[in-house]
Amino acid sequence: MVNSRDYDVVVNEGSVLIRDELLHVNLGITDGKISTISSNPLQGGQEINASERIVVPGVVDPHMHVWYGHEFENFTNATEGAAKGGVTTIIDMPLDKPFPPYTPELVQRKIEAGESQSYVDFGLFGGVSLEGGISGVEKILNTGIVGIKIFPKGVPREGFYKGLDAWEILQVFKLLQMKNLTAAVHPANADIDDKETKRLLAEGLIDPEFFDDSRPAISELESTASTLILAQKTGCRVNFCHMSFAEGVSLINDFKAKGVRIFAETCPHYLTLTRDDLKKDKRLRIHPPLRADEKDRLWQLLKEGKIDTIGSDHAPLPKDESKSIWEMFAGLGNTVEIMFPLMVSEGIYQHDLSLSQIIRVMSENPARIYGLFPRKGRIGVGSDADLIILQPGVDQRINANDLSYLGKKWSPWDGWNVKFKISQVLLRGRPIVREGKVVGNPGDGRFVSALC
Ligand SMILES: [Zn+2]
Predict the structure, then answer these.
(1) For residues 231 and 173, is the Cβ–Cβ distance under 8 A?
(2) Less Cβ around it within 10 Å: N or C end of the chain?
(3) Mean pLDDT, residues 23-39
(4) CATH architecture of 4-55+383-438
(5) Which spans in 87-165 are helix H?
(6) How remote is the CA of residue 40 from the centroid of ligand 1, in Å?
(7) Which of 419, 307, 300 has the alpha carbon at shortest distance from 353?
(8) How far is the CA of 98 from the centre of ligand 1 (A)?
C-alpha cells in the first residue's frame, strides 16, 4: 500500500492517453515525474480532478524561434504563448542576434537566459556562424544541444548565419552522427529561388500570390534529394524542416524505407492555409510559402504516418504593411500558441485522424528524434509529468488579441473555431496554465539536454 503522502500531485479520474490508448487511470507525481499509474484514485499534496477530461503528454515543439537577442520577441513572451497552447518543451532555433550559438560560452549564455526567462522547458539547436564556420560545430557537440540547424548555401540572407555547401554539410553530418545528435535541415536551393524571384519581378508578376512561385517545389525537392544522399552516406539522423510539398515528404519516405534515419516535419500553416489566403493578405509571407493545393495531400501523409513532426515555426516578426510582400519579413505571428488546439481540432474533426496520431507527431516523435525521449514525449512512469488536461468538444474562437507575443497582434487564424479547450497545463507536475490563465512564472523552464 502506497502512502498518500508519497505523491506531491495526483491527477485523478481522467481519460489518460498512454501508448495510443485512452485509459481511465490516475497519475501520481513525485518530484516532477510520474511515479505511479493506478486504476485506483490516489491521494497527494495537491489533487487535480480530471473527470470528463482527457489527459495527454505536453507538446514538444521542435521548431521554435524565441529570437534570442532580437528586439521583436524573447524567451518570456514566446514561452508564455507556448504554455497557453499546451507546449511544455520547445526546441529553439539558433537564429540569435548577434550570433547563433556556436561556442560553448554562447550556448551557456542562452541556457542561462532560458532558465531565468522561460515558462516551459527548452532544448537548443546549435548554429553555424560566419565567424565560427563548421569548426565551431565540433566545439559545441558536448553542450547538451539536440543538434545543429543547417541552411544550405545562399539560403540565409542575414549576415550572421552561414549557409553550407554540400561538402560542409557532409562534415557536419559526420560530426553529428558520431555524437548521435540530429541535423534539422531547411531544404531550399538558393540558386533556383533567387533566379525565379528575379524572373517574376522582371515579368511584373508581383502580386502576393506569386510569392509561392518564387520558392518553387523543385527548389525544396532538389535540396531534399541532395541532402538525403548525404544522410544516407553518413548515417546522420536528419529532420527535414517545414516540408510544404507532398512530393518531398514521399521522397523522404522512400529513403526511410531503405533504413535511412530521416524524418519529415511540416507546420500547421501548410495544413490549414493556401496560396488563396496569401493572395488576399500579403502578411502571410512565410518560408517556404503557402502552396496552392498541397494541404489535403499533406493531411493524407500525416494520416499514413509519413510525416513525423509538426513544428510551429513560431516567428512573430513585425509586418510593415507599407512594404510589398517581396520586402516584408517572413513569419505568421504567434503560431506556437495556436498549433496544438488547431491541430487536434482540424485533425480529428476535419481529417479523420485520431487523437493519438496527433499526439505522436506533436510529442513523442519530436522527443525521440531529438534525444529527449522518454524524459519527454509520453505519459509513463519515470517521465516528466508534463501534461495537458483537455476538455473536448467545447467550441473556442481564436482571438489574435489574446495571443502572447511582442508587437502588433494579428493572426491568419483569427476567428477560427477550435473544438478543444485546454483546462490545465502541468510542467513537471506544477500547473503553469489554468483555464487560459498563466499561473507559472518566467524561469520555471529548465534546459533539457539531448541524451547522448
Ligand atoms: Zn524556422
Answers:
(1) yes
(2) N
(3) 98
(4) Roll (2.30)
(5) 104-117, 135-139
(6) 44
(7) 300
(8) 17
* Mean pLDDT across 275-294: 96
Flag whether the pTM goes above 0.70: yes
Residues paired with 129 in a beta bridge: 161
Centroid of ligand 1 to alpha carbon of 152 (angstroms): 14
Q: Matching CATH topology for 4-55+383-438 and 58-369?
A: no
Is 145 in contact with 181 (CB distance < 8 Å)? Answer: yes
Residue whose grid cell is 479523420: 352
Distance 157 CA to ligand 1 centre (A): 13
Own/partner pairs, 437-441, CB within 8 angstroms, 24+ separation: 438/80, 438/83, 438/84, 438/119, 438/404, 440/83, 440/119, 441/119
Peptide bond into 208 cis (omega under 30): no
Which residue(s) pair with 25 in the sheet?
A: 14
Mean pLDDT of 166-177: 98
The single residue listed with the C-alpha cell 501520481 is 28
Q: What's 85's DSSP letter?
A: T
Candidate CATH numbers 3.20.20.140, 3.90.330.10, 1.10.10.10, 3.60.20.10; the one for domain 58-369: 3.20.20.140
Distance from the CA of 380 to the center of ligand 1, in angstroms?
31
Å from CA of 313 to ligand 1 middle? 5
In degrees to the nearest 10, what's the CA dihedral of 170, 176, 179, 182?
-140
| Cβ proximity of 429 and 7 under 8 Å | no
- Whether 451 has a pLDDT exceeding 80, the answer reads no
Is pLDDT at 194 greater than 80 in this prediction? yes
Residue 309 in grid coordinates: 513532426
Report CA(9)–ligand 1 centroid distance (Å): 36
Where are the alpha helices (H) located in 26-165, listed in sequence order?
Answer: 75-84, 104-117, 135-139
Ligand 1 centroid to residue 329 C-alpha, Å:
13
Q: How close is the Cα of 65 to the center of ligand 1, in Å?
A: 7
CA atoms of 163 and 171, how far apart (whole Å): 13
The rounded Å distance from CA 287 to ligand 1 centre is 8
Does pLDDT of 4 surpass 60? no
- Tens of pLDDT, residues 300-317: 999 999 999 999 999 989
| Burial of residue 22 (number of CB atoms within 10 Å: 0-12, 13-18, 19+) | middle
Domain boundaries in the chain?
4-55+383-438, 58-369
CA of 63 from ligand 1 middle (Å) equals 6
Q: Give the pLDDT score at 3.
A: 54
Which regions of 368-429 does DSSP assign to beta strands (E)?
387-397, 417-427
- Do you know the residue count of the chain? 452
